[in-house]
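[Q] Does anyone have a clean structure-token version of this?
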Amino acid sequence: MAEESGLDLVEIVPDANPPVSKIIDYGKFRYDQTKREKESKKARHVIKVKEIKIKPNIGENDFNTKLRHARKFLGEGNKVKLTCFFRGREMAHTDIGRNLLQKMCDELSDIASAEGPLKRMGRFIHVVVAPVSKKK
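[A] Here you go.
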């Protein structure tokens, strides 16, 4: 029947019992399928984790700049990893870095929430903040 009408016999659902087949133009079928896949990719938003690094002796204006960047990333729907890293003698004063990260989390509390407590790993203290869902 497919050859008589000049079309192709295409197996649509091979896993079904019995398998589903249609008599259609195969080129058009492939075109529609790729078009549907592209549309589904457009609708999907991939959440990325952006990282912002600070030092314990950061200036006030630099802190505010980093805070603005974090707000921008969170506004785009991405998660932000806030990291404070220490060099040399700064390791003796990790409480300063911990206070800075806590201050940054508090400043971002209106649009984001921390996913966990502040964690220290070697020369770094970090925390991941995620945007608060807009549904609430």
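[Q] Thanks! Anything notable?
[A] Residues 28 and 51 are 45 Å apart (CA to CA).
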